[in-house]
Amino acid sequence: MPAGAQYASPTPSTGRKETATQVSSLSIAAGQLAVPSAPPLETSNGTVIQLVTGGGNDTLQQSFVHDASNFKIKTRPRDELPRSVDEATLLRIRNEESVLKKRREEESPYTPVSDQMSPLKRGTGTPLLRRDRIKMMIVGDSISQGMEGDWTWRYRLWEWLKSQNEDFEFVGPWIGTRQSPDETKPPSPPEIFGEPVPEEAPLVSGGYADGVDSAFETKHFALWGRQAAEAKTEIKKMVEEYEPTYLLVLLGFNDLGWFVSGPEGTLASIKSIVDESRAANPNINIILGDVVQRSAIDFRADLPVITDQYNALLRAAVPKWNTAVSPVAMAFVRDTYGCETQACPSGHDGLHPNALGEFQIARAFSLALVYGFGIGTDSLSIPASVSGRPNPVPLNVMAYASPYGITVTWFKVYGARKYGVRSRYKGLTDWNEGTAFTNRFDNTWVIAGSHFEYQIRVDNEIDGTSDWSDIVDAIADPKTLQGPSTIHASPTENGVHVSWSAVDGAEFYAALLFDSDLPGAWLSVVGVRGLSYTWESQYVGHRHVVAVQAWNDIGGGLPTLGRNVIPGTTDAPTAPTNLYIDSVDATTVQLSWCGDCSDTSYKLYTRSLNTDLTNLSDWSGSDAGSAPATGVAYLVPGVWNYEFAVTALNGDLESPMSDGLQAYYPGYTRGGGECKKCTTPEPAPNDPVPETSPSVLPIVPVLGGGTDYKLHDCGEVKDKDGNEKDGRTLWRELGASAAWEDAVAYYNNGNKERQFSQTVASFFNASGLASTMDCRSLNVDNGCGDASIACENVNYPAGYVILNSMANLDALFFQLYSSITDASTDVWQDAEKISSTFNPPPPSDDTALFILGLVQNVWSMALSPGLGKVLTTTFGEAGKSKAFDKVNEFADIGFEKIGEAIGPVSNPVSTASAIQDQLHAVSTLWLNATDQINNAMFDGQQNSITNLREIIDDGGFMVRQGEGAFDMRAGTETPLYAQVIPLAWSYDRGDPPINPSGVFILDWETACKTDDDCPDNIDWLPNGAAKRTCHCYKENMYFLVQLWGSAESPGSYPSNTPSDNIFNEPPGLDDLDGRKWGGLTLVKFIEGSVNTYIANGRKNGYTPDFKDDEIMQAYVDEASDHNAVAPGVVQIPVCPPREAWDNWDEVYHGNPKSEHYPCN
């Protein structure tokens, strides 16, 4: 070939079909993370790879964020889950034993726990007995150990135990979180193949959040990456040495995530932990947490499925493992921790708990301790808001040339989860971003003279990031070795073999392999003392990039690229076909050809022919890249004097040469033909990751536990001072939850010949009560609500708690029933007084319809606030939502019963002949509804049993709710009178004949401070009426008035004198003195109506929604005032005088009344 001939940049030929362009080394390199010549891309580990040409050898320039304590030189993070069982096999995760070896030999190795323990032994292995002082050992993985700066759920549990005044301590071999390195180090060499890995101590000396109490007992047995498969071999020794009386175990995620074992195998490992613990202490108490979900990983659709499967197996196993001498309980961590595949607000990285998640996990274990073991009285409450980590900008950022490239350092930010690092060539605008896990970043694999700029920030993941630091810069001056001058790479049946030439001064080499066809693949690095290495178990058919790096005592230098390799065969490729030549001009040609899918690159061969201008020469070959096309320029004295041929390569395996083809004169083409379409192999699509959702916690948020109700006696009912313990304490300490389940099972197993309450009494051998304790019916002497059961009258103290709770609940409903009876009797018997005092409403269809409207609305106003107050008092602040839910369930039951009664046209209200009879019918409906609610508690149906359990659960109803709980009679009368009295005011008095009378609250739209500001007279009202009907409320003046006489034209306003056409005071105001009529007064009518008006957005026609917790809370808060001023109780319309006047005039002229007449 003539001197000076050069190969032009590859340009596709025109006028023919091409094979699909193969992936070039450059595109593979740029695909990991961009360099200045290409748009920036990045992998999750911040790797940058650039193809650089120089000195005759292609090299790989890489700059990656390096964490010496975690990754060493590996680019695959230690916590990156494998994609499949096959990949797990590639990672040498084959079974439980190889897992241990893999974790110790290939990643951060841990000394076996048994070898890490202090030589000072604490015990002799004698079985331990329960002691007064509680000794807890928390056994877990990273979720339990935490990382530097975490509070940890262990601390939140410790805080809660302290608040419960428990005598306890935490025990275990370790004290800290996982620490970040205190000293930053230069890049570490890769592990050398075939050489033992130095053992490293576990990372267990990290600190806690700055606000942690200095008294916190930090001891534990939890470690990042820990699996149940590992812990089961160590737990017996831990129990023997540290003598815990309680084990709190939260393991299993790593077993499932790393394919150590499936759900069944993971359960077997947990069972081994239970068995080995009991071998050391037959009386040990154990709480097992289930496995949390995590945010979706697109290549692990199986993970949420097998997690749910394991959790279901554990839930079924715990009751079987539970024994009286060594209780086992389950903590429902998964359903308490706020982490699902679609979102994980409780995790800082999609798995590990943030400050909120720590509270949630601690709460799950507190529930198990309270309900399963009687430790503590109130479970841990989760705060409404929790502060995240602070995000200060890193200080003292410095960049400087180092022997291996450029090093950037900064002051450590305590508790920072990681740092963001971004870099760029000086003079460019786009940044490449990566991540560092320590306060040092080493920009290696750079060329001498490269000038980079850097910025650093704190990255606390879900808790946010800091601002970027100021820009620093440095010029690289590496002292490391260049890569080998020669690299040979070839495919094997399932991998890649690579060999290389020696480099003077090299102590060892790093062989690098990258699967460019696998999205998200990690760069594989292995140290080698010799001059060759073979990778096995790679993906057959995938294109792999091969490189080799030389290491000396300074570090690793710039790697050299070998040829790309596709594993799967040891045969040479077939020769390319259909060579095509396009003579672009006299000295330039464009060539293309048909290759094969297994080709990784090509070589172009050229020779001059025997012509008038040239002599026949030997073939000269050179690399033509990975695409089946290239160009050649400067072919003097002319392209027609040259012949071309091509070979295909797979690594160093080369095909025979294609047929040679001579170029034609400029403007002409030769050769060509159809090519087989070849595409890069596409990986199988990942299965979609299913969305997950938590289950509703069971009534008793724990399975198993150590409170065997049959082992207690009545002497435990009272404290040391002889006072009866509170109901919650008795419920838990006496094992009432388990006793309830047994009583229900006794009923369901054929003992249904009597009422449910009687059967439960019989189960507890309360024979004297069994025949009379029928709690189902309220309107008879049922021997339930008035029962008083002594502990000595039952076989187990738990029965004393349960039967009294049932009786007290029945008594509450009987109190409600009686109060409705008394209140409704008062109201219907007062109907005559209502007529004589306020206005005589005649019995009519309109009256009946109005009163029918009262039945359900007033029912809610009477029932919901009072009962809500009782239940919120019983359940406590933490149970407020539960209390409101129960009240709504009760109201719905009553609504349904009332609806059935008033649904027909001929119903008890509409068929009554007088208003007294109509009101009496209302009271009868209410009584039936109340009886129906009570029946729904005690009728023995499964949903009724569940409802009953949810009400009496936790012993809150051990205290009888007496008459002082709230004034149920007044609470019933007030909303009824609040509706009936305005009904009387709103009827025509009959004088004069045309009287569209209506009561309303006149909004005078005048500011005021107190009632002393009320005037003696105003327009629209007779003299003196203003003072008697006025009230200053919310700094505005209102009047309770009604229409009086016949309306004039809207344009004619009344004078300030008494006449037929002026608003007036309703009759009977003097009688509203607060001592009768449900405590109603002029003030309450005005304030209640205005509150109703405002609650509806300053519109009339408001109906309270008792399913809204805020509205329900408002009614509960007003229960002491009989709810008269709560929105919705009083519904007299509110409007300014002109609005009422105009509506009055419309009716006077024959138009229908407005809906809230006389207001809009």
From TrEMBL:
<feature type="region of interest" description="Disordered">
    <location>
        <begin position="102"/>
        <end position="126"/>
    </location>
</feature>
<dbReference type="InterPro" id="IPR003961">
    <property type="entry name" value="FN3_dom"/>
</dbReference>
<dbReference type="InterPro" id="IPR013830">
    <property type="entry name" value="SGNH_hydro"/>
</dbReference>
<dbReference type="GO" id="GO:0004622">
    <property type="term" value="F:phosphatidylcholine lysophospholipase activity"/>
</dbReference>
<dbReference type="InterPro" id="IPR036116">
    <property type="entry name" value="FN3_sf"/>
</dbReference>
<feature type="region of interest" description="Disordered">
    <location>
        <begin position="1"/>
        <end position="23"/>
    </location>
</feature>
<dbReference type="Pfam" id="PF13472">
    <property type="entry name" value="Lipase_GDSL_2"/>
</dbReference>
<feature type="compositionally biased region" description="Polar residues">
    <location>
        <begin position="8"/>
        <end position="23"/>
    </location>
</feature>
<dbReference type="InterPro" id="IPR051532">
    <property type="entry name" value="Ester_Hydrolysis_Enzymes"/>
</dbReference>
<dbReference type="InterPro" id="IPR013783">
    <property type="entry name" value="Ig-like_fold"/>
</dbReference>
<protein>
    <recommendedName>
        <fullName>Fibronectin type-III domain-containing protein</fullName>
    </recommendedName>
</protein>
<feature type="domain" description="Fibronectin type-III">
    <location>
        <begin position="575"/>
        <end position="672"/>
    </location>
</feature>
<dbReference type="InterPro" id="IPR036514">
    <property type="entry name" value="SGNH_hydro_sf"/>
</dbReference>
